[in-house]
Amino acid sequence: MIGYVIRRLFHTVLVVFAISLLIFFSIRLTGDPVSVMLSAGEPSKEAIAQLKANLGLDKPLYVQYFIFLKGLVMFDFGESFRSGGPVIDLIMDKAGATLALAVGGILVSIVIAIPVGILSAVKRGTFVDFFGRVFSLMGISFPNFWLGIMLILIFAVNLKWLPSSGFDGPQNLILPSITLGMILSGILARLVRSSMLEVMNQQYISTAKSKGISDWAVIIKHAFRNALLPTVTFIGLQFGSLLGGAVIVEQIFSWPGIGRLIIDAINQRDYPVVQGGVIFLSIIMVFVNLVVDLSYSLIDPRIKSGGSGHA
Amino acid sequence: MVQKVLEVEKLKVGINDDGRKIAIVNGISFTLEKGETLGIVGESGCGKSMTSLSLMGLLPPGVEWLEGDIQTHDLHFKKFNKQDWRKVRGKRIAMIFQEPMSSLNPVYTIGKQIMEMILSHEHVSKQQARDRALEMLKLVGIPRPEQVLDEYPYQLSGGMRQRVMIAIALSCNPEILIADEPTTALDVTIQAQILELMKKLQEQLHMSIVLITHDLGVVAEMCNRVIVMYAGEIVEEAKVVDLFDETKHPYTKGLLASLPDIADEKEYLSSIPGIVPAPENMPSGCRFAPRCPNVHQRCMEAPPLFDVKGSKVKCWLYEHGDSEVVM
Q1: Share of chain A residues as helix, strand and coil, in percent rounded to the nearest 5
Q2: pLDDT, tens digit, for every residue of B223-275?
Q3: What is the complex's ipTM, to 2 decimals?
Q4: CATH number of A88-299: 3.40.50.720, 1.10.10.10, 1.10.3720.10, 2.60.40.10?
Q5: B38 burial level (CB within 10 Å; 0-12, 13-18, 19+)
Q6: DSSP annotation of A86
Q7: CB A226 to CB B103 under 8 A?
Q8: Number of H helices, E strands in chain B
Q9: Total structural domains in chain B?
Q10: Closest in B104, B120, B152 to A207, CB measured
């Protein structure tokens, strides 16, 4: 187990190194930051050269990369081209909001999707299943910006129950979490339903029924427990993508998250912020995957963490 | 005086397709006596598994109990609700299945799975249930039972898993054990061990066994009486000795003839031509008629079960007692 974790941490270093290469060079394909920063008026050649030197952009590319990598080893992502402040502070400033939103979205989706998925599978072919499937389809097909705007219209503008933007307290979390959670729960409910249907056909479900235990004990203890593995995998992956991919929802609710930070930084060609943000998210993503993989061995005793690698 | 522990009366099980009832098990009746092993034999699709599942109230979705009753002592299954079934399952009638590799839940320990059965039927503490589980593992001959109690199914072989299944089934001391092809999925040597174990436990615990199988060798080894099913009906019922020595129904004869014989150097194994008709396409007369070598005019009409020297046969050849046809 410990050996496995150490191996995985070593993998993490490799992954982060690969991402650093990718992000460092691809962000430089987007254009020249200096031309964006000095877009007002007609900058002189001297001014441009001066700014480049200040930002360290005058050095050869491989030297720049080496400097970036050296900082990375010490968790120093450099300074923002725009604000001049350390990138790590900018990220840490937004990390809490991003994490809170991701956790909120996941929680909402779990609370909705798992009961819907289980009921759909158990009552297969009935109207309960029909509603469950319609719900899933709506979750999958609703664009999240539309759902977000609708929620704002209803609960913030008309009813005035909840704030529509910002991040000042837990009440701010409700609408964006529901927006994210609803969309996710559509897919999750379908996944739970299909995993449950597969498990319910297994022989050990007949064995459980033949013991004379209650229907719900069969469904929850015997069936759902076995359907948990694909569910947990999915939740883990979604959590990762929510960290960086909730940009639209962050925009709608003016959420001060990392997604927005990175988008703004890309628009301004603020290289260090983009690099730092992406690296930070990828570290969290790898870490979440590790936690998911470790949880497998708790869910299913046949999977030993030391065994074949689950990437 | 033999004591009947189970009576099945005109049981009809099938699909109810918008009022159009298609019987899979078509009005079968039989009894099970205390301490005996009753074999139910037949090809795949003859309704033997559906019969056993109706004894447990575990018919698959879409399949319904259409007519008839099953009775054990004073209990009439026909009137059962969910709660009543739960009290019978495991406690009075227990079941083991064909696939030991997949009939245990992979995520729970062996001990937990045995204890679950005990705790759901008896008011005992967890420790008492665990002690009983250990006792059961010893009873079914599991080596190092203390460790196995905390192991998972994947750590055991197929034969060991079937032993665990038997331990679970017998943990509440049921009067009746239904074994649906319990050895089909096992190696031949392991098969013999499991059959031996079932025999030993039957004597020890005085239970009755309904053994569903398509293996006539297993029948000869285990059973007192045999029911031969064809296309959802009982075609022959006999003591096991009579079934082999004085085979009556042409279908049973066909089954026995299709067994390979080591002394006989035939190039081809004999078989019964044709296939079992589908439930929605049953011939109106004798259901075996289209495949029967002795088919004649009378077979256009469905025969009843004739009593012939202590056996029962569903065939017109036995209308006047013993068969007049030399075959």
Answers
A1: 75, 0, 25
A2: 999 999 999 899 999 999 988 888 888 888 888 888 777 777 767 777 888 88
A3: 0.85
A4: 1.10.3720.10
A5: buried
A6: B
A7: no
A8: 10, 12
A9: 2
A10: B104
